[in-house]
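Lab notebook: predicted structure, single chain.

Context: the supervisor wants predicted structures on file for every construct in the current expression panel, including those that have not yet been purified. This is the next one on the list. No modifications to the sequence; it matches the entry in the shared construct table.
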Amino acid sequence: MGAGHLRGMLTKEHLTTARLVAILIGIGTLVAGLGLIVTLKMVNVVTASIALQVAMLIELGTLAWFWRHRGRRVKPELAVAAS
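Prediction complete. Output recorded below exactly as produced.
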């Protein structure tokens, strides 16, 4: 199951906020990784590509987590009926 598949399924379920959060976490991971690379003075193509791959894997993991926990959200009509 790839990231594109998970993005599509989350969109189908109207969980677009989950996609946004996954993207932001991926970008944050990439920025942190590149910052670490620059701080350690290990700047080259290999370390930058490793940082990009790690960020993509973190984003995929976040998408998978949201997909696995999609049924736990409270539907607005149920919340109103319960109160």
